[in-house]
Amino acid sequence: MASIIKLYGDFFSPFTIICLFTLHEKGLSFEYVDVKLFSHETKRDLMNAKHPFGKVPILEDIDADGNMTKICGSRTHSRAISRWLAVKYASEGTALLPNFEDYKAVAQFEEAACFESSYLAASSITYLKQKVVHPKIGVPVYPEAIEESLRQVKGNLQVFDRILSARQYLTGNNFSLIDVWSAIFIYCLLETDPEFLQDLSSLASWWKGVSSRPAWQRTTAQIASRWEAMK
């Protein structure tokens, strides 16, 4: 019997989408359990039983012997979920991790992982919360805070553009988990402004390649209705 994989999440959560994109890149069959963040369902019985803090995403992976591995998600743990999938299912779908015997490749991967988390994700999340999420949930919006977070995002994107001027993907010439993790933030930024990558030719070229991948196409097809409802 093959493993049974369940992903609990909300398509409005970028961390759920990171896991979803990973699953599609690996070509894995899975069950998706929708949990609406803004209905506070995450704080009620189902999610409290799954995650002590009522967060999503959550991955459950039950192997052929009935042994279950559960990884509880949040901002950083969505990356733990995707790493789990990339390691356990290394022989399936797209290879998303470097050869661990290639020390240089591993170092470059971990460096890129730090850049993604500390700069791209961190600044994008701050900006998107202020620009998109806070108005939706009635939190006061401060234009000066939005402008400052936008300035930080644009500055970080310029650095990523320079990095990508010398390589095809964020860790080198091979698509990896770093590209998976980064994709949703570029997608979200472009949803707020289609001109976000203007004058960032290397980053725009990277995005054209990533967004044309079949796994990303399947991912965006799944999340489209949820994102449309939030507009």
TrEMBL record:
**GO cellular component entries:** cytoplasm
Please list the residue ranges annotated as the GST N-terminal domain.
3-93
User: Which superkingdom heads the taxonomic lineage of this protein's source?
Assistant: Eukaryota
Kindly state which reaction or reactions the protein catalyses: RX + glutathione = an S-substituted glutathione + a halide anion + H(+)
| Annotated ranges, domain GST C-terminal | 102-231
Q: InterPro entries this protein is in?
A: Glutathione-S-Trfase_C-like, Glutathione-S-Trfase_C_sf, Glutathione_S-Trfase, Glutathione_S-Trfase_N, GST_C, Thioredoxin-like_sf
Q: What is its EC number?
A: 2.5.1.18
Which keywords accompany this UniProt record?
Transferase
Example GO biological process term?
Answer: glutathione metabolic process
GO molecular function (one)? glutathione binding
Q: Which family does it belong to?
A: Belongs to the GST superfamily.
Record-given protein name: glutathione transferase
Give the species this sequence originates from.
Answer: Colletotrichum asianum
